[in-house]
Each structure stands twice: as structure tokens, then as C-alpha cells.
Amino acid sequence: AGWAVSLVVSTFWIRFVVGCPVWPDVACGFVSHLIALSVLWLEPRLMIPIGLALMGVCVGLMLVDMAFDLVIIREGSVRLGPTTVTPGRLVAHHYYHTMLNATHINMAMWTAMLCLVLAAARGLEASRGTPQVRLWVWLCLQSSSTNCVYMYFVIPRYLAIREAQAYDAAAFDRWWEVLAARAVLLASICYAVTQCMRLTLEQSVAPELQRKRAA
């Protein structure tokens, strides 16, 4: 049910609220939902490795983006060659404009965000009646809230840059808001990683303790 709600709401938001075209945005969202749906049929014990791998992808992309964020905020310049000095905002514009118009990048990020939520929901369902249920509840809330932060604070700025026909320095005004949102997301993901590692240790130690008690 949650998967279906996500598909309907996100499709409506992308197409009618944001005004994105059916191709590639709506189509990519639909395909990403189909890919993420496979998570619901996997064994619960695979949720943690999948979550860690996906969070690694998200962290890697965010760290690269943050390098350009810092160039924008510092109002720095980038030397391209021995004599050419280019404003940092212009370099960031070319980077973001290229990345945001790459269908495979958008689909990878969309799929990762969906899979994180569905993996947490799958883990929560499997952990009912166990001491780990509270931790899975937190992971569900954490993954859902971080997605909302990303959609509210970052995506609108990205869309403005992606649709721009020419470089506009004003598009990067108050970019510290994007960096702040990204820092919150990074901290949240790092915390989720520690919790997943904790669950992994508990799952690996629990059978050994049970064997010792039985002996």
C-alpha cells in the first residue's frame, strides 16, 4: 500500500505540481518504483546490506555535490588552464546542469531513495515482536523524513538550474540553504549507518548466544 501511495503521490507532484514532462521525469519515477518494488520480495536479512550499499551511493553523490556547494558559497573562482579563471558559480552551473539532465543519475538517486524507505519498512514488518522493532521504526521515520527534506529544500533549486536555458548567477543565491539541507541529510545517513551496523552485530551475535545458553 505504501508503495502504491508513493507512486501516485510522486507522479502527481512531479507532473502537475512541479510541471515536469512525462519523459524523462515521470517515466523515470515509474521505472524507479518498479525497481524498488523488488525489495519487498527479498529476505528481511538482506535489508541491512541493501540499505548500507544504497546509503553509500547517496553519501558519495552528496560529498561530490558539497565540493561545488563550497565553491559557490565562498564565491570562489576555478582556474581552467594557465590563464583562464572562471567564476565558481559558472563552473557549478555546468556541473549541476549536466548531472541533472543525465537520466541515469536521476533514476539512480530516485531508486536509492525509494529502496531505503521500502527496505526500512520491510525490516520493520519482519521485526515485529522483537527487541529490534523500535530501531526499525526509527529507520523508517529517518528515511522518510530525509527524503522529504531533500524534496522540499534541494529539488526545487535543482529544477530551476536544470531548466535554465542560460547561466544565471542568481540561481545560486542563498545556496547555503542547500548546503545546510545536505549536511542534515549526511548526518542523518551516517547515524542510520551506525544503527544498521548495530543491527548487524546483534543479528550475528544473537545466534551464538543462543547456542551457548542451550549448551
UniProtKB/TrEMBL annotation:
The protein, known as: Glycerophosphocholine acyltransferase 1
Keyword Signal: yes
Signal peptide (UniProt feature, chain positions): 1-19
Transmembrane segments annotated in the record for this chain: 12-40, 52-73, 107-124, 136-155
Source species: Phaeocystis antarctica
Keyword tags: Membrane, Signal, Transmembrane, Transmembrane helix
